[in-house]
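Notebook entry, cofactor series.
This is the third protein in the set we're modelling with a bound small molecule. For this one the ligand is adenosine-5'-diphosphate. I'm keeping the input format identical across the series so the outputs can be compared line by line later. Sequence and SMILES below, as received.
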Amino acid sequence: MPPKITAERILDSMATAVLVFDAQSRLTTINHAGEVILNHSARHVKGRSIHELIVNAGEMNAQIASTMSSGQTVTQRGCLLLLPDAPDLRVNCTFTPITDAAGNLQVVIELRRIDHHLRIEQEEGLITQQQATHELLRGLAHEIKNPLGGLRGAAQLLEREISDAALKEYTHIIISEADRLQSLLDRMLGPNNLPKIQPINIHEVLEHVRELVKVEAGTGLRILHDYDPSLPDLLADRDLLLQSILNIVRNAAQALENEGQIILRTRIRRNFNIGSRKHRLVARIEVIDNGPGIDEGLRKQIFYPMITGRSDGTGLGLSIAQALISRHQGLIECHSKPGETIFTILLPLDGKHEP
Ligand SMILES: Nc1ncnc2c1ncn2[C@@H]1O[C@H](COP(=O)(O)OP(=O)(O)O)[C@@H](O)[C@H]1O
Ligand SMILES: [Mg+2]
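Returned structure with ligand:
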């Protein structure tokens, strides 16, 4: 006979978080997955009241009481748990009554995370949308580029033929506007040459962006940094990366009207998903501003081209940024409320970079 496996070992091997509470709603047992969710060791949380462990424990506490009195197993779906020392999470909770060795009633709560799946689905959607936008942009830019070249050439010929200065003024406008459109299209298409992939120190790039935006914005704007020095070099095209981050930081500076604070933050994430692809190491770059936030009506669309909230905006900054980041298998996310807007760039750090 192989050695017996204890119930405790089995509990700890489970992916489902298990928490057991007594009649006073104090935690009596927790497994390893439960410790991970609460972000505390069993030693630290055992014996504590549910109200100390979960910020919004009211509903769960009521369910513990009613499970004890009814003796029935109950599952609640999609509960939001606010935790004091860990990120909020959405779970399905199953409450089951049991009696302990002394004959006292306790309630076993199984917590299965669902926010994880939701996040992956949302990110997959975002990646598909970003790829579609990128294709659309490239197609559109190519379509406009050729006739534009013809227009400019014709205006140039015309300019040579006419001597009237007032008329030349018109051809001049056509040529300079065509040039402006041309450079806009070049920006939409990205650089002509193939990306130059090399090891990049992301902090050096961020410092460069910081200098550029500081010069543009003047002294009313503070740009702070909070870098994780353990972040390794990432394989990327420096110019493309710089342009994407610059577009995001510039937007933040514009939203702040050059009065306020931007934080550039880097972190490393292990075993992290970008969409459905799991990466061993991911660089997380956050641009956080304390401005008014993104207009609610625009929030869902800001990554689409031509969407702008500014009278002099082109609405291209973010769609270009996301196209460039997705060429590096990365993703840009955005969370915004008045007083805090966070743009998060996620980039894989584990090789295979062929943007
Ligand atoms: N940090 C931010 N705070 C508030 N609004 C923002 C921020 N970043 C982007 N936006 C909104 O998203 C819009 C689209 O940005 P973008 O694609 O760069 O185009 P543009 O800057 O030309 O308007 C902006 O016009 C602005 O309304
Ligand atoms: Mg912009």
